[in-house]
Amino acid sequence: MSSPLPSHASVVVIGGGIMGCSTLYHLAKMGVSDAILLERNALTSGTTWHSAAQVRALRHSKNLTRMIQYSVDLYSQLEEETGQNVGWIQRGSLSIATTPDRLVHVKRQEALAHAYGIEATSISAGEAKERWPLMNADDVLGAVWSPDDGRVSPSDVCAALVKAAKPLGAKIFERTGVTGILTENGRIKGVETTQGTVMCDAIALCTGLWSREAGAMAGAEVPALACEHFYLLTKPIDGVVGNTPTLSDHDSHLYIRDDSGGLLVGCFEPMGKPIAPGVLNESFEFGLLPEDWEHFEPMMELALNRLPALETAEVKMLLNGPESFTPDGTFMLGETAETKGLFLGCGMNSVGLASGGGAGMNLAHAIVHGHTAYDLTEADAKRFAPVFNNIDHLMARAPEILGTHYDIAYPGKQLVTARNLRALPLDAEFKAAGAHMGQFYGWERPLYFGKTAEPTLRFDKPDWFDNVAAEVKAAHEAAAIFDASPFGKIDVTGPDAEAFLMQTCAGYMGRAPGSVIYTAVLNERGTFESDITAQRIAEDHYRLFVGTNAIRRDLTWFTRAAEGFDVRLTDETERYAVLGLMGPEAARIARELGGDLDGIGYFKQAEATLAGVPVRAARLSYVGEAGWEITCNASDAPTLYAAMTKAGAKPAGLFAQTSMRIEKGFCAMGHELDSDVTPVEAGLDFATRKTGGFTGAKVLAEKRAAEVSSHVISLAIDDEGAVPLGHEPIYLHGKIVGQTSSCAFGYRIGKPVALGHMSEPIADGARVQVDIARTLYDATVTLGPLYDPDGSRMKA
Q1: Whole-number Å distance between alpha carbons of 407 and 427
Q2: How many other CB atoms are found less than 10 A from the CB of residue 79?
């Protein structure tokens, strides 16, 4: 007879798949001795049991790769820890290329692997054929061999995790469905189940296919949707002997490996099949969906080309098992914006087994310590705009995300579904000017102007190169308009506004009204939660400008930090438009529009009137050209824009802004700055207070005392034809010493440019090499901006 539910548990894990079992295991390892796991059916009965369970370490970022490397280490040692066989088979993976662009892509991945300490080697088509004799290699141009990749038995891994967690106090309750989640004042209080109520301090929501509905029980938005996922299983085939490497034929959308003497042939077809909510109900246990040979047929034809032995193979089954996908193809991990104590570990996008070990560790770390073990902002549960939780948008987007699983990582690639969800105040004007749009936090934002046809995506000189060059030239020689309206605008008002911001911000927030302040927002570890600019409008009124993709995250951070302060925070993002008027002609244009802005000092702001429109103009620049960021009511933006363009200003997009930002050496969140980096290490200590009194001050003082130096550098690459994209390894004397973080072509200096992180100090002017798809390009290091005509830096 099973034991009764406890009346209280510190943490309740909901869901018994790989994420739930891993999270429970790691909670127990971290000393949470009363954590429980609730599973309404049986362990692994949702998606986990039918996973192909491939564990490929390399991902597009250092920390996602690090997370899967942790999974590899965990799975390989679990058997020793528990005596439970986990079926860990480490036979490597082989990624083939059948097109020139795919070859560039896999070679970029090989370079990335070297940066992250993963063994990967380019091999010829002949060598690939030797490793996979059943493969038709006639069209193979090359391949990359990764010997450390492998696969596991999903159910056995979960059994081992649970077996290890139980002696540490963890308890598992199967056949215990959650019927409600109890909250009070926006905080988790407990769960109602079919077996009774359990009060708790936190919930780890690891509910896979049902996460959107489970989150809604706690008032949280969880934009994830299930899609059908197919793989073919054959009976034994001659020539399949023992365990084989995983064969990745991504040009054909296929992954292939042996299975019980036969073959497993899986696909991520270009457009998947979504599953409407309600189709998978609570009785869907170890369930599969109907075979759909008509949908699979195009993939089968590609598989027959790659594996001629399939012609005569006996088919065991076409497995169709549901998996959940998010709007951007990365899982959700961490505390929700809406409900304190509700932590998500879901939306695994078909990499649940590969990610599960490291993701469960990080989720447990976030619950116990208040933050993940290392920066995982790209997987933050608070990153999606609420508009993405709309079921129609998810039904359109999730199938495309499934299809992008094996995409070539072209620069400038945009998703095509669930678009035009949020329009900027100048949407019509931008489209009339030939804007090519990209989606950011649901907003359609101009990337560049003047080309109405869809660009051909490529790794060499992009189709938009000349368009961006013209926009940079306008900003450099005349005047350009950069639309910053999608940036978040959070108003902080009340008698404690200054005291609150002096506590939560590292910059000096006590400057007089009329000031603009650049500041880091740090956590207790002294690392970045955000970097923002603030305008002090009155003694009791500040306006914070935060990154577009960080609006929910930053608003949540500030709101939770405001407890005990007499302040009010309001999201005013959609109320205001912000136009950056930049360039040597900006002052003339402002005068022609009736506003003399020349009297506004650097990092100052004031009210004015331009073209009859009331505005607030702030003297600062993100692009290294003189100008103002001008805030007005959203409804007035078309009038102001029309007057500016009539006076000679040209619209400029995000690509031009990024190029100019990098030349100017300005760091950005998610690139140079994240929760693993302090301002001291990023060269931004000049913008922090030295007297303390703010969150993270103690750590910064320790860094200064240890004489830690900045490890952010600027790079100019000699070869004008090089196209760095970011994350490329930087070599010095044949040794990897760093990695690029932001890259573009620098039109003002006439060379490809980058910002990067170095693992060791390096001299100004040092000569290094940048590995772009396994070709080494010579570059020069600059400690400071590459373009800085007046020698100025951003001042706090």
Answers
A1: 29
A2: 16
- The answer to whether the CB of 72 falls within 8 A of the CB of 148 is yes
Among all chains, which residue has been given the structure tokens 């369930």?
287
Which tokens sit at 324?
């959940």
Residue pair 267/299 in contact (Cβ under 8 Å)? The answer is yes
User: How many Cα atoms within 13 Å fall on the side-chain side of residue 56?
Assistant: 22
Least confident range from 59-73, 88-102, 503-517, 520-534: namely 59-73
**Comparing C-alpha atoms, which of 11, 21, 12, 16 is closest to residue 357?**
21
pLDDT at 91: 93
Q: Which amino acid is at 39?
A: E
pLDDT band at 2 (very low <50, low <70, confident <90, very high): low
Nearest to 268 by CA among 281, 285, 280, 255: 255
Bridge partners, residue 232, by sequence:
265, 318
Of 331, 13, 47, the closest CA to residue 172 belongs to: 13
Distance CA 141, CA 103 (A): 7
pLDDT at 792: 45
CB < 8 Å & 24+ apart, contacts of 555-564? 555/337, 555/488, 555/490, 556/337, 556/382, 557/521, 557/529, 557/530, 558/490, 558/492, 558/504, 560/340, 561/500, 561/503, 561/504, 561/695, 562/500
640 neighbors 429 (Cβ within 8 angstroms): no
Question: Please, are residues 282 and 175 in contact by the beta-carbon 8 Å criterion?
Answer: no
Q: Distance between CA 788 and CA 785 in Å, rounded?
A: 6
Place of tokens 């402002």: 590
Which two tokens mark 17?
């798949």
> Collapsing DSSP states into helix, strand and coil, what is residue 318?
strand
Please name the amino acid found at residue 549. N
Q: What interhelical angle do 154-165 and 352-369 show, nearest 10?
A: 20
Residues of the chain with pLDDT > 90, as a percent, come to: 95
* Mean pLDDT along residues 402-428: 96
* Bridge pairing between strands 650-652 and 528-538: unpaired
pTM as predicted: 0.96
Q: How far is CA 181 from the centre of its chain?
A: 29
Q: What is the mean predicted confidence (pLDDT) over 237-258?
A: 94
What are the structure tokens assigned to 654, written together? Answer: 């995000």
SS3 for 117-149, per residue? Answer: CCCCEEECHHHHHHHCCCCCCCCCCEEEEECCC
- Dihedral sign computed on CA atoms, order 7, 13, 15, 17: negative
Instruction: For residue 378, give every residue at least 6 positions away whose Cβ sits within 8 Å of its Cβ, in sequence order, or none.
Output: 61, 64, 330, 670
CA neighbours closer than 13 Å in the CB half-sphere of residue 6: 18
- Distance from the first to the final alpha carbon of the chain: 65
Q: Return the SS3 of 792.
A: coil
Residue 223 has, within 13 A of its CA and on its CB side, a CA count of 28
Q: Is the model's pLDDT at 293 over the cut of 70?
A: yes
Q: In whole angstroms, give the CA distance from residue 239 to residue 342.
A: 50
534 closest CA partner among 495, 488, 567, 576: 488
pLDDT-derived band at 795, boundaries 50, 70, 90 = very low
SS3 content of the chain, % helix, strand, coil (to 5): 30, 30, 40
* Per-residue pLDDT reduced to its tens digit, 376-385: 999 999 999 9
Q: How deeply is 541 buried, as exposed, middle or buried, from its count of CB atoms within 10 A (0-12, 13-18, 19+)?
A: middle
DSSP state at residue 106: H
- Under 8 Å between Cβ of 734 and 696: no
Q: How far apart are CA 768 and CA 218, in angstroms?
A: 52
- Amino acid letter at 332? M
The conformation of residue 753, written as its DSSP 8-state character, comes to E
Residues linked to residue 534 through DSSP beta bridges, in sequence order = 517, 544
pLDDT tens digits for 458-508?
999 999 999 999 999 999 999 999 999 999 999 999 999 999 999 999 999
In terms of Cβ atoms closer than 10 Å to its own Cβ (0-12, 13-18, 19+), residue 733 is exposed
Q: Identify the pLDDT of residue 793.
A: 40
